[in-house]
Design brief:
Blueprint lengths: L1 E6 L2 E10 L4 E6 L2 E11 L2 E6 L2 E10 L2 E6 L2 E7 L27 E6 L6 E2 L4 E7 L2 E6 L4 E6 L6 E2 L6 E4 L6
Antiparallel strand pairs: 1-2, 1-8, 2-3, 3-4, 4-5, 5-6, 6-7, 7-8, 9-11, 9-14, 10-13, 11-12, 13-15
């Protein structure tokens, strides 16, 4: 899921992925990955753990957004302008429209063959994974530009994990 938030007048895009195998979720902001776990304690209280660091989170809702209190700091958060929709000439919608790359079986990432911003062509090798001592090269499903790399070397991955996101040329504003 993608969110565009205005936090203290700074617009931040957040990608959020529920990960049952991690007993929580993964979030990406500013090019960094955050492993998030939490438990709601009351209607306005949450016990949160981000990359192993625990924090209490409290919030107060207002008509235009929320005040979030974390570790003695107060943040004003509201939805920002919506994320740009796909242009009409892009035929596909949903996860595959972006050219998401996911492993075919539980495996380990042994090589990453591209970098963010690289232009790739359909069939080009992007990531090498290993499962049961056999290596598999995962290839680009279409031409485009590597928008995001959501994995790292030695990462344990499963089908459904989005390892690489490829932006199809001309589909975004």
């Amino acid at each position: 899921m993608r969110y565009r938030l205005n936090i203290d007048e700074q617009v931040i895009d957040v990608d959020w992925s529920i990960r049952p195998e991690h007993l929580g979720a993964l979030a990406w902001m500013h090019g960094r990955e955050y492993q998030v776990r939490g438990k709601q304690i009351s209607a306005q209280e949450l016990r949160l753990e981000v990359n192993g660091q625990a924090a209490w989170v409290f919030w107060a809702t207002a008509p235009e957004g929320r005040y979030i209190f974390i570790g003695g700091h107060v943040f004003w958060i509201k939805d920002a302008a919506p994320i740009s929709p796909r242009k009409k000439h892009c035929k596909e919608t949903g996860p595959l429209a972006l050219g998401h790359l996911s492993p075919p079986m539980p495996s380990v990432v042994v090589r990453i063959l591209v970098s963010k911003g690289d232009k790739v062509t359909a069939g080009q090798g992007l990531v090498v994974v290993s499962a049961m001592k056999m290596e598999t090269v995962l290839t680009a499903p279409r031409d485009g530009i590597v928008r995001r790399i959501n994995t790292k070397l030695e990462a344990k991955v499963v089908p459904g994990d989005l390892l690489i996101e490829i932006e199809e040329s001309g589909c975004y504003e």
